[in-house]
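Think of the structure tokens as a kind of shorthand, similar to the way a musician reads notation: each symbol stands for something richer, in this case the local conformation of the backbone. In the example below we present two proteins back to back. Begin with the first one, reading the sequence and then the tokens, and try to describe in your own words what changes along the chain.
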Amino acid sequence: MTFYNEAGDTVIERQMRGFNKVRAFRTDMQMVADSMVFTTADSSLTLFRDPIVWSEDQQVLGEKIIFYMNDSTIDWAHVIGQALFVQMNDTVHYNQIGGREMKAYFKNGDIDKADVEGNVQAVFYPLDGDSAMIGMNTTEASFLTVYFKMRAVNQIVVYNHSNGVMYPMEKIDEKKMYLPNFQWLERIRPIDAEDVFYWRGKRVEEQLKKSNSTKEVPLPSLDRRRNR
């Protein structure tokens, strides 16, 4: 596609599209989705329909995820519809933050902070100086910001009215340990470069719920016509 900037110079937009069970692997990040589009116009990578992204012990999913790049590194990401961030502390305890949408900002390739908006719910395990969990914090709010330090959840700031409870480790309410839409989908995650050729989809019970925003998320089309 051909565009013109304010100076009247010709700008060529190039796109790369992937369809039908997209899987990608690199050592610091893995992802799966139904389809994807990368466009040079704004250096964005968009993952469509039930995408999942992993980085070490962190997982992000939603109805649609857009990464905005800066010199081949992620500048910020926008998770749209049923956004869920999960960080594994161990195989039982997970930091979880869910909301209608999430905007995550990066520094030097690592997540620095994330803004979460719309029916926000969080389960968070604060750590002491020895990195031991001291309790479980549950929070409900309309908007919150998560700050990260050394790739781990460091602080959660809640705005406006909110409800929250802090449980000591020995008095944790097991019914509140996991958000209603909690999923840890390690089974689907690509494990190496060759594994991207072997599709493993979600089970029926792992599918995202139907929602109004789901209907509004368009899929890319394969337009073979060339713009001249």
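Once you have a description of the first chain, move to the second and do the same.
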Amino acid sequence: MNKLSRALLTLATFLIPAVAGAQSTIDDKLNSVMEPVTKFISNVIFFKVPIGGGKEVPFVLIWLILGAVYFTFFNGFINIRGFRHALDVVRGKFDNPKDKGEVSHFQALTAALSGTVGVGNIAGVAVAISVGGPGATFWMIVAGLFGMSSKFVECTLGVKYRNVNADGTVSGGPMYYLSKGFANKGMAGFGKALAIVFAIACIGGSFGGGNMVQVNQATNQFIAVTGGEESFLYGQGWIFGALMALIVAVIIIGGIKSIAKVTDKVVPFMVGIYILAALVVLAVRFTDIPEALGLIFKSAFTGTAAFGGFIGVMINGFKRAAFSNEAGIGSASIAHSAAKTDEPISEGIVSLLEPFIDTVVICTMTALVIVVTGMAPTTTTEISGDAAIGLTSSAFGSVISWFPYVLSVAVILFALSTMISWSYYGLKAWTYIFGEKKSSSATYKILYCLFVVVGSAISAKQVFDFGDAMIFAMCFPNVLGLLILAPEIRKDLASYMSRVKSGEIKRFS
């Protein structure tokens, strides 16, 4: 710990002034260097397929949606029939302290939720409504419900094929079920290749979308509520970033146990505050709720260009849901693999609560607040992340005048929780490639903390776009693996449910 802290401070001493002193130059250079790289990767990952009505949809979205729908039907609507059991498991009714693992079911859930509940729940919903209108909310809910089934499959596999190390620590996730699961089917080389592709994309995503994008949005929101151009941090965002980096460093040094101890307190708190504020707004505008719900449902099936408009609204809703809950991306299975259980299915069932909480509950409440307060844009033009947060802030602020300040705290907490979870995801991908040695882990953690500072100080669009592209690149090897390994999960599910029903799997509380 002392060595890591000294190394971090030494590097920060040299790099932070350089970043802060030449921000615009660094932005220009990074954008210039990254633009062709990002453009190429984005064209590959987000290449579009014509679907009629003059509309195109990124294939990555089709890949995620079809996978989620398939897993829902293939596993007999586990997203619905497993919901009640998921609540029992996460409440500890089946916890056995003797089971292998590092964290409880609840801690694994909050650690994974902290990686998905983030700025996207605040800004992403506003963007969805600005582009697709209120009807996009309906399709976000639908996508969230189907996404529960993808989460179930990937997190079950995460536990089933995890490595439990000699010191009790756990390494799991797509890297392991792709390599080990495919090896069982006589496709070891192919599985290993997919695992490495996933790991590389996960590392890139952890530095970009899971780190720099989060701290950048938090920095901008904090500066906005402390005076904007008059703020003491205006033009000095690196100071905020340095503070966030130190907080992140202290938390992630202890690994998943340390992360879980933070997330199992921060996630319920921040989600509770946000939902409470939304309920206050909806209570004040109670008479407007029926009209808002009617508008959301009606506009979900209509559009300015008939079929084309409807497809556009649906695509945008699904797209934002995918950004928000990451079902099919594979990241959450890394956190869930650390759960204390000898029954992989039990943790898979717990994980299906994530898209429900993230998308069906939080995103829907955000959308309702925007619609009932009359803040939904009347034209369909995509807005930036900062403007999107501002729109949501104004919607809450129209009823709760002081809420923009609370929202700033929420954005910071959302960003912080996302960063610490993604640090764990990236670390496990890093050690899969470079080994589980302490020096390897320390190198990644130092780099990750430095990227926190860099992300707060720059506004290099290409860097952030690259990070987002890497996160979605993870879904290609992951969903392919889920499709091939899904039959064994269906068999395991049938066995587990029968043993729960018979009482063979006992309650411990």
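Compare your description with these statements about the second chain. Residues 188-225 form the longest helix (38 residues).
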